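> call design_seq(struct)
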C-alpha cells in the first residue's frame, strides 16, 4: 500500500467511526468536546408535605368549612395556635372528615410571657399556657408544640442571653413528663428574639435537655437575619430538626411572597434530604380566602418541585 493509499484508508475509517457515533446521538445534538465530564446530576432534595397555619384560612364559617377550604387548595396539614377560642371537638371532627392532618400546635403565649422572664409568676403563667398547648396537641393528634423559649432584652442584665438560658431550661423541663405522657415533642423555634442566633447555640440548647422530647422548629427565613446560610443550620441540627416553616424574606425589602426572598431553597431542600427530614413545610404568611391560598400553595409547589 502506497503512503497515499494508506492515508485514504485511515481517513475513510475515521469517517465511518464518526458516522457510527453520530448515528447513535440524538438528532441535532452536537458531539461533546473531548475531555469534558458528563453533566453532574442534581443532588437529591427532600420531598416535603405542604401545610398551612390555621389563622391564614380567612373564611366565615365553621371549623369544618375552613378545613375543607385548606384541603381544596391542596394543603395536607394544618397547625393551630393555643390557646385559641375554638370548639376543640370540632377540630377533631374536621380533621377526620377532610383527612387534613393537625400536625402541630403553636404555643402563642411565649412572647408576652416568656419562660425566661425575671418574674416567677410570669414564668408560671407561661408554663400553664404551654401545658394547655400540649393537651391541645394530644387532643388533635399533633406531635409537636412550637415554643419560643426566651426573649433577650438589650441593656437589661436580668434578661441577658445567659439569664435567658439559665431560666428557660429548668422551666421547660417541668413539662417534659407531660410531653412523655401525651406523646408530644417541644419544637424550639428561633425568631428575632436575639436568643440562640448561631447554629451551635441552638444545638447546645436542645442537647442541654438530653431528651428525645425536645428538638428544633426551623425557619429558613428568620435565619437570614443572622448571616449563616439556612442549609448550614439544617446540617448542624441534623436529626434535631422536627418541623420547617415556609415564607419569604428579603434582606433589602423585608417580608415578601414565598419564592421572592433571599432564601436558597434548593440548598435548603438538599440539606433537608441529607439529614433525613421529609416532614412538614408549613406556610406562615398573610392569610386570605381561596384565591389567596391557592396562590400561596402554587408558590410552595414551585419551590418544592425544583
Amino acid at each position: 500500500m502506497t503512503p497515499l493509499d494508506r492515508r485514504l484508508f485511515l481517513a475513510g475509517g475515521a469517517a465511518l467511526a464518526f458516522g457510527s457515533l453520530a448515528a447513535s446521538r440524538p438528532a441535532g445534538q452536537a458531539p461533546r468536546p473531548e475531555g469534558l465530564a458528563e453533566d453532574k446530576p442534581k443532588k437529591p432534595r427532600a420531598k416535603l408535605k405542604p401545610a398551612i397555619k390555621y389563622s391564614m384560612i380567612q373564611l366565615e364559617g365553621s371549623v369544618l368549612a375552613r378545613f375543607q377550604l385548606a384541603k381544596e387548595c391542596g394543603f395536607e396539614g394544618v397547625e393551630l395556635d393555643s390557646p385559641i377560642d375554638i370548639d376543640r371537638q370540632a377540630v377533631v371532627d374536621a380533621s377526620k372528615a377532610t383527612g387534613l392532618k393537625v400536625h402541630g400546635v403553636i404555643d402563642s403565649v411565649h412572647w408576652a410571657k416568656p419562660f425566661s422572664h425575671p418574674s416567677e409568676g410570669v414564668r408560671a403563667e407561661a408554663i400553664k399556657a404551654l401545658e394547655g398547648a400540649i393537651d391541645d396537641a394530644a387532643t388533635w393528634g399533633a406531635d409537636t408544640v412550637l415554643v419560643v423559649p426566651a426573649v433577650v432584652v438589650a441593656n437589661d442584665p436580668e434578661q441577658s442571653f445567659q439569664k435567658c438560658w439559665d431560666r428557660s431550661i429548668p422551666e421547660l423541663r417541668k413539662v417534659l413528663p407531660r410531653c412523655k405522657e401525651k406523646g408530644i415533642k417541644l419544637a424550639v423555634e428561633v425568631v428575632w428574639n436575639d436568643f440562640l442566633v448561631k447554629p451551635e447555640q441552638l444545638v447546645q440548647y436542645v442537647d442541654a435537655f438530653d431528651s428525645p422530647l425536645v428538638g428544633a422548629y426551623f425557619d429558613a427565613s428568620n435565619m437570614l437575619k443572622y448571616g449563616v446560610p439556612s442549609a448550614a443550620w439544617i446540617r448542624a441540627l441534623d436529626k434535631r430538626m422536627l418541623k420547617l416553616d415556609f415564607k419569604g424574606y428579603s434582606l433589602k425589602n423585608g417580608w415578601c411572597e414565598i419564592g421572592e426572598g433571599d432564601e436558597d431553597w434548593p440548598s435548603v431542600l438538599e440539606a433537608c434530604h441529607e439529614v433525613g427530614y421529609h416532614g412538614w413545610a408549613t406556610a406562615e404568611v398573610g392569610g386570605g380566602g381561596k384565591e389567596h391560598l391557592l396562590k400561596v400553595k402554587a408558590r410552595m409547589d414551585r419551590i418544592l418541585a425544583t
